[in-house]
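Question (not urgent): is this output format expected?
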Amino acid sequence: MQNTPDLKSTLNLPQTSFPMKANLPQNEPKWLAKWAQEDLYGQIRSARQGAPIFTLHDGPPYANGRIHLGTALNKILKDFVVKSKTL
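Got this back:
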């Protein structure tokens, strides 16, 4: 075999404190407990008190056939809109 150089040291990647794995089964209950302790939902509701009501009518997920990438994009965009109206 050829002697291949180690190219890892030539990469200029950012250093982050993010773990390699999300470990959602372990971490998600911690996040939910923290949000409950901080009453995050209550804070959001009180910050929006008196604001106009925003309603997004969303149809069935597979009304036009099988699920595809456009279905995911549609749900993601709707999630952005709802969250932006919440803040």
